[in-house]
């Protein structure tokens, strides 16, 4: 069975104030064309269909058009909600859409109920695991404890139980929206850390033939059977080096991955990060190749130059982001402060602050638990408000 795996469309999102709806429409044109040209048997969309819980009307219209086109192509589509989506809103009309071959899986309770497709080798059971916010779904799934690993394990236990009751030789595919250990994040993904832990081990998904992941925006292979498609468009300058693709997976008669091919997505405009003193950036002939790119410029001038954006856009008209990072000596207090903050989580920064005001004594276990609970409560409260609960 040939599967086309994509995720993280983020319909309605912009890129540094540049509207991307036309680029997203071009991607969906490419998706439908690929389905037809490469004779895909199913399309897998692993969450974050929209960029926010209440998307703009133009994004909803684009999504509606895409669903009609996929249904007209006669190729089943299985789609889950991600952490940016409102599961309730995305799931409206799911029962009716099932009859058109578009299968929306947004309810955690349905994790063990697959969409069953068949080819000449037999059945393939496709299980949709929507994004699982631990505090909201733990009781529903009967998870032994809180945390991403626990709720995903509980959902996968339902998958494995259903699969065990099916005829021998039934192949299996899981769609999930999660941060799996070994994946490389970028700046444009929303933090889903719970209790100081964001990632879950790939072993949570043991027992199935292919896992189509969403959430991380770079296309990557965690294991040969566990892959991220990545987002079809870049949504931050941290994705400058990404090659935006979809996975075309050929699932063999025995459940083996016969082939895994990356299908390139259309690029509306390349990204570039340039760094240096303003006069050098304006004169460097090696930067000519970036003059038509979306540019993030980091200026290292010791003093902020006059009219930097106007001067940059004279050469790089699509400059979108300007950063000032003056050259400093290693003993400059601002350098040491930035170094301390680099790659630190919100919780770690808060714990560092406690140690600072106490003259070096960091939080004890009880205080650390209070900080962890506070950060978790804020994130859950945000998730509930965005879901309209």
Automatic annotation (TrEMBL):
Residues 1-218 form the Calcineurin-like phosphoesterase domain. It comes from the Bacteria. GO terms for biological process: DNA recombination; DNA replication. The keyword Cell membrane does not apply. Pfam families: Metallophos (PF00149), SbcD_C (PF12320). The keyword Nuclease applies. Gene3D superfamilies: 3.60.21.10. Residues 268-356 form the Nuclease SbcCD subunit D C-terminal domain. Keywords: DNA recombination, DNA replication, Endonuclease, Exonuclease, Hydrolase, Nuclease. InterPro entries: Calcineurin-like_PHP, DNA_Repair-Maintenance_Comp, Metallo-depent_PP-like, Mre11_N, SbcD, SbcD_C. GO terms for molecular function: 3'-5' exonuclease activity; endonuclease activity. SbcCD cleaves DNA hairpin structures. These structures can inhibit DNA replication and are intermediates in certain DNA recombination reactions. The complex acts as a 3'->5' double strand exonuclease that can open hairpins. It also has a 5' single-strand endonuclease activity. Heterodimer of SbcC and SbcD. Belongs to the SbcD family. This is Nuclease SbcCD subunit D. It comes from Streptomyces laurentii. The gene is sbcD.
């Amino acid at each position: 069975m040939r599967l086309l795996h994509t995720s993280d469309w983020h319909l309605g999102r912009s890129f540094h104030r540049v509207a991307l709806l036309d680029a997203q429409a071009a991607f969906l044109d490419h998706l439908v064309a690929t389905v037809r040209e490469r004779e895909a048997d199913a399309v897998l969309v692993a969450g974050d269909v929209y960029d926010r819980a209440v998307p703009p009307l133009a994004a909803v219209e684009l999504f509606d058009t895409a669903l009609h086109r996929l249904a007209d192509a006669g190729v089943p589509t299985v789609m889950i909600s991600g952490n940016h989506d409102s599961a309730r809103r995305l799931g409206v009309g799911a029962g009716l859409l099932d009859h058109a071959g578009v299968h929306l899986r947004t309810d955690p309770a349905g994790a063990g109920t697959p969409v069953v497709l068949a080819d000449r080798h037999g059945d393939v059971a496709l299980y949709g695991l929507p994004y699982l916010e631990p505090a909201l779904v733990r009781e529903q799934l009967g998870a032994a404890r809180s945390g991403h690993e626990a709720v995903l394990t509980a959902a996968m236990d339902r998958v494995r139980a259903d699969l065990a009751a099916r005829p021998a030789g039934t192949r299996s595919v899981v769609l999930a929206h999660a941060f799996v250990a070994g994946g490389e994040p970028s700046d444009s993904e929303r933090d889903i850390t719970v209790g100081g832990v964001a990632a879950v081990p790939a072993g949570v998904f043991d027992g199935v033939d292919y896992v189509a992941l969403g959430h991380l925006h770079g296309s990557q292979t965690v294991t040969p059977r566990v892959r991220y498609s990545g987002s079809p468009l870049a949504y931050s300058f941290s994705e400058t080096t990404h090659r935006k693709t979809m996975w075309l997976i050929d699932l063999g008669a025995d459940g083996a991955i016969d082939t895994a091919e990356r299908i390139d997505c259309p690029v509306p405009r390349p990204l570039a990060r340039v760094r240096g003193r303003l006069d050098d950036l304006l004169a460097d002939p090696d930067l000519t190749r970036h003059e038509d790119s979306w540019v993030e410029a980091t200026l290292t001038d010791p003093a902020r130059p006059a009219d930097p954006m106007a001067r940059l856009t004279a050469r790089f008209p699509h400059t979108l982001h300007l950063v000032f990072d003056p050259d400093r000596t290693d003993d400059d207090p601002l350098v040491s402060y930035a170094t301390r903050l680099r790659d630190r989580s919100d919780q770690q920064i808060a714990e560092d602050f406690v140690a600072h005001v106490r003259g070096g004594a960091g939080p004890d276990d009880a205080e650390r638990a209070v900080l962890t609970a506070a950060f978790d409560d804020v994130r859950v409260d945000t998730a509930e408000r965005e879901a309209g609960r």
